[in-house]
Amino acid sequence: MVKKVVKRGGIIITLPSREDKIKALIKNKEKVKIAFFHPFCYSGGGGEKVLWTAVDTILRNYENFEITIYMKKTELTKKEILEKIKEQFNLDIKENQINFIQLSLWKLTVAETYPVVRLLLQNIGAAITGFEALIKYKPDIFVETVGFGFINPIAKAFFRCHVVSYVHYPSISEDMIKRVANRVEDVTNSQNITTNPVLSTLKLVYYLISKELYSSVGLYTDSVMTNSTWTYNHIKKLWDVPEKTSIVYPPCDTSYLSTFDINNKRERQIISLAQFRPEKAHHIQIEAYAKLLEKHPEYRNDSSKFTKMVLIGGCRNKNDEKIVEDLKSLIKKYDLEKFVTILTNLPYNELCNYLKTSLIGIHTMKDEHFGISNIEFMTSGLITLSNKSAGPLLDIVVPDEDGNKTGFLASTVEEYADCLNEILEMSEEDLVKMRTCARNHVQKKFSIEKFEQGFMDGVLKDL
After folding, report:
1. What would the mean pLDDT of 102-126 be, rounded to a whole number?
2. Residues 268, 424: contact at Cβ < 8 Å?
3. Are residues 413 and 266 in the same domain?
């Protein structure tokens, strides 16, 4: 792309576009400034794994790329942050390889900042924070990896960046709108709304307006990567830029996790691996375990059938800590202190010990856009029990190429309890067969190498 300019005297010259300038920098191996917008960059979740694997990929392959991350204000030093990344993801990033820009307006990106009209206000707040970020540091390539697409028009129109989005889930979707229209109670649609016709109508109008605004984001994005079939379908429909849009599955450490033994008998232990956020629906795991004991008292009374459940996840703030306290109260309510344990912010090596030895991996979020922990379960040799929706349903816990079952899917507490019982009663031969099929399936479909190639193709699209 070139821009024609007419000078006095009638002489016509051409000026290179932003993309042409970046192409020249890459070709000549000159410094290319790339910046990631990711305020909670050390939270330890799946989104952060995508971020840091991307950073590691660039560092190993492009010496001329200068990497910056826009992040929340923190008292942690760069060294302490990178030590956390080492613990969380086993990635060794050196202090001189990366820069951090701390954002004073970061709280505007936090949903809890807004008691009402949260969807719209959070996105506006993120756009304001993004403006602060770009004023403080203007990169050649701007990569948005959290889901705040409203920053993209600012980066493109005002700062002339090459704009890339890695979308974990759309800010608004047809599914959300349908739930409001049908007055279905959900994490994003409280009982106060569903029981009030006026509020439901107002929220529906508000969602439809938000959808129209969000639909314009694709026009200001040069390359769009989505993390799953479910997200791809929604973004393709909303942003309507199919030629710019691709699926790049998140990275999964299949090489290391696949060294874990799958032939030996495992501990009767169920583990969950997800940040402690409302949408992860940890309470369903506890309720399903309680239902299992209710329907099959032998699991409570017979020591040979004793099965432990361990909920492992990251805690980012006081809101997450409140969820953990509520879950502990739920455990006490069902008299499950002997059976259920919660572990927060576990180091990577300790997490791997649980992945090596546990029998079942459980995941309960509805409409989980991808669900990387399901792949980690399957690679590590756990029998996976996930929610019958979105990423797990369409991409992950699907039959392998020979039609063999690779895991279990459930929707209700009752279904989860029944699946847990079925898995716990499986023979060792059947368990080993399912583990083998599941591992082979995810190794072929998901890997760090495939992510690295897909991500760099996305970042460098049209460059």
Report:
1. 92
2. yes
3. yes
